[in-house]
């Protein structure tokens, strides 16, 4: 005999079946989800301290609002010389990185792609990936030896060929150059991976057609490889533009010394010095919030710009 | 004919350029290696460039005899292993359920997770949270707060998406549940990307120091090797600055510093080339789906 079930009963059975089958998925997700909520979303509650009076003992929601409708610390930040310098340095270093550091992996990838000796190509790749795996502390140690004023390798060589030594890491102007160069040294090789992958996706028939038309190597690079890389370049450029106000901590922190703080103090270091070392949580929090909000605007702006020009964008 | 010979010449020119790149990439490391193996006298006379002079291993012996270094190296190695295992576990647990169409609310859950890649609370809020969780100055603060990287999770999820659904469906017909399917099918098929992500996590922990600097300032015993190295080098920077300002350098512990740098560098140099084939595919997936 067939029992006729009520629709509601059926639905309940379906839900029960679904849960019986897939409840483990939710169980698996529980730990990562809890992690995200606790360590990524809960901190956002503490953003509030940027608008409250500074107090190192009590949580921000128990504190009274700061002066000027809560914007006291933002106003104070823009009256603070250290912050203004940090802002200027952040933008300057990032712009230089963009200008000089962004094209470097593209050129390097084009070069590696033209290398015809397969085995040698693999070795070259392995070696140029190496610096990516070194920490900025190690690199600062290496750079300190290589570029030291009195006994660094570069300056010893310069002196032997009759030139005067250069204070690569100890004068503000030279330090900026070394900072940018070391950034390229560390990441240019690694960043070729994406470009090389994009190059392999280019249709080989295009190269054959170009060869038939009598295009030489440079023309093939210009008319086939570079156009093939265009979408990748645009997406990566957007990401770099979105980070124009972002600041790494490790790199300037490790490379800096007290002779060059006028150019090496960036926002992340300001936040560390004032906030964590100096316990001025509200002020440094306001600075950090300013940085991430403006940074988000830049990212959204750059993304929509890319989409307007018919590229894919990052979301 | 002339054209092809010209092409050949270009090939060698490109190879020569690449050789120069290899030289530039390795130069700083060779220089430090040479200095760490040289005698202090040779260093003071500025004789050491790329090859050690007055060959000796004293610096390495001294480092290995100093319990502060060996403890820090050992602790960082243990920490790296623990962090890598935990990070991989939580990353797999996050990525795997997100590939199921049957996961209700998947879009929302996914959005909540990925959003944190674009907007994070910032240094001070993180610090205040860890402070109120009473985690500051405890070794656990080097493990838990950065346990999962969303970027790595996305790489793994994209890889899981690439595994044909039909495999999963046929296992489901055979009565296998999600956990069994994960262990029997998905993990064995993802060995390459799992190796890549483990490398990323391990290198990140081995090289990381800013969390220790910010959250562990009072607990020097558990400083990871990079932070210890920073303090040693900072000392060296001050000497360098003092020298430029007209003081004389004590050249004694110079080789020692270089040896410490080498100890922190060598483990990575030994490991990463073996995983090159894998991490290239990992990075490429990340770039496409990022």
Number of strands of chain B: 0
Number of H- or I-type helical stretches of chain B:
14
Total beta strand runs of chain A: 0
CATH class of the domain at 77-137 and 183-308 in chain A: Mainly Alpha
Give me the CATH architecture of the largest domain in chain B, please. Orthogonal Bundle
Query: What's the number of helices of chain A?
Result: 14
Which architecture of the domain at 77-137 and 183-308 in chain A would the CATH scheme give at its second level? Orthogonal Bundle
Percent strand of chain A equals under 5%
Class computed from helices, strands and strand pairing of chain B:
mainly alpha
Query: For the record, what is the CATH homologous superfamily label of the domain at 77-137 and 183-308 in chain A?
Result: MetI-like
Task: Give the C-level CATH assignment of the largest domain in chain B.
Answer: Mainly Alpha
Q: Report the biggest beta sheet of chain A as strand number plus sense, adding barrel if it closes.
A: none
CA gyration radius of chain A, whole angstroms:
27 Å
Largest sheet of chain B: none
Describe this structure as you would to a colleague.
- The complex is a heterodimer of chains A (315) and B (290).
- Chain A is an all-alpha fold.
- Chain A has a domain at 77-137 and 183-308: MetI-like fold, CATH 1.10.3720.
- In chain A, 71% of the residues lie in helices and 0% in strands.
- In chain A, helix 3 crosses helix 8.
- Chain A is flat and about 80 Å long.
- The relative contact order of chain A is 0.11.
- Chain B has 290 residues and is mainly alpha-helical.
- Helices cover 72% and strands 0% of the residues of chain B.
- In chain B, 37% of the residues are buried.
- Chain B has helices spanning 2-36, 40-44, 58-65, 67-95, 106-118, 123-132, 150-162, 165-173, 178-189, 191-207, 210-215, 225-244, 254-271, 276-289.
- Chain B has 2 domains: 2-44; 59-289, Orthogonal Bundle (MetI-like fold).
- The chains are: A mainly alpha (315), B mainly alpha (290).
- At the A-B interface, helix 1, helix 4, helix 5, helix 6 and helix 7 of A face helix 1, helix 4, helix 5, helix 6 and helix 9 of B.
């Amino acid at each position: 005999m067939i029992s006729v079930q009520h629709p509601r009963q059926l639905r309940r059975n379906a839900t029960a079946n679904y849960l019986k089958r897939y409840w483990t998925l939710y169980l698996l997700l529980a730990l990562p989800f809890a992690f995200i909520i606790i360590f990524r979303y809960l901190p956002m509650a503490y953003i509030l301290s940027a608008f409250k009076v500074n107090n190192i003992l009590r949580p921000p929601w128990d504190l009274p609002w700061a002066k000027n409708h809560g914007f006291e610390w933002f106003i104070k930040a823009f009256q603070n010389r250290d912050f203004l310098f940090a802002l200027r340095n952040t933008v300057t270093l990032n712009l230089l990185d963009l200008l000089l550091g962004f094209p470097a992996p593209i050129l390097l990838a084009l070069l590696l792609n033209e290398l015809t000796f397969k085995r040698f190509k693999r070795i070259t790749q392995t070696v140029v990936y190496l610096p990516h795996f070194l920490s900025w502390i190690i690199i600062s140690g290496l750079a300190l030896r290589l570029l030291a004023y009195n006994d660094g390798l570069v300056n010893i060589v310069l002196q032997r060929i009759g030139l005067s030594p250069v204070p690569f890491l100890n004068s503000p102007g030279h330090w900026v150059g070394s900072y940018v160069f070391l950034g390229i040294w560390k990441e240019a090789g690694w960043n070729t991976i994406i470009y090389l992958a994009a190059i392999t996706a280019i249709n080989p028939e295009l190269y054959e057609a170009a060869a038939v038309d009598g295009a030489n190597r440079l023309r093939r690079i210009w008319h086939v490889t570079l156009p093939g890389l265009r979408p990748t370049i645009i997406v990566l450029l957007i990401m770099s533009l979105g980070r124009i106000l972002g600041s790494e901590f490790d790199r300037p922190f490790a490379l800096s010394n007290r002779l060059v703080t006028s150019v090496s103090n960036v926002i992340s270091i300001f936040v560390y010095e004032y906030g964590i070392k100096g316990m001025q949580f509200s002020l440094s929090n306001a600075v950090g919030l300013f940085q991430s909000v403006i940074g988000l605007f830049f990212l959204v702006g750059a993304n929509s710009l890319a989409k307007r020009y018919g590229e894919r964008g990052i979301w | 004919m002339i054209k092809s010979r010209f092409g050949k010449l270009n090939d060698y020119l490109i190879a020569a350029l690449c050789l120069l790149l290899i030289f530039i990439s390795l130069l700083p490391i060779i220089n430090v290696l040479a200095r760490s193996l040289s005698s202090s006298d040779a260093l003071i006379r500025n004789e050491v460039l790329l090859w050690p002079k007055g060959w000796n291993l004293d610096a390495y012996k001294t480092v290995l005899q100093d319990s502060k270094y060996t403890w820090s190296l050992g602790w960082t190695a243990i920490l790296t292993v623990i962090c890598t295992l935990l990070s991989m576990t939580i990353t797999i647990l996050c990525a795997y359920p997100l590939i199921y169409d049957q996961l209700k609310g998947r879009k929302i859950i996914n959005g909540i997770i990925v959003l944190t890649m674009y907007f994070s609370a910032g240094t001070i809020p993180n610090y205040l949270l860890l402070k109120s969780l009473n985690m500051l100055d405890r070794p656990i603060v080097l493990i838990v707060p950065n346990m999962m990287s969303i970027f790595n999770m996305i790489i793994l999820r994209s890889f899981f998406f690439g595994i044909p659904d039909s495999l999963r469906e046929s296992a489901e017909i055979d009565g296998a549940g999600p956990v069994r399917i994960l262990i029997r099918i998905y993990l064995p098929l993802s060995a390459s990307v799992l190796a890549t992500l483990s490398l990323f996590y391990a290198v990140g922990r081995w090289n990381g120091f800013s969390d220790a600097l910010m959250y562990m300032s009072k607990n020097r015993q558990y400083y990871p090797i990079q932070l210890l190295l920073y303090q040693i080098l900072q000392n060296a920077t001050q000497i360098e600055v003092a020298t430029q300002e007209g003081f004389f350098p004590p050249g004694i512990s110079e080789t020692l510093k270089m040896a410490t740098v080498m100890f922190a560098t060598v483990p990575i140099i030994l490991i990463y080339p073996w995983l090159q084939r894998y991490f290239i595919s990992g990075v490429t997936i990340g770039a496409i789906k990022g």
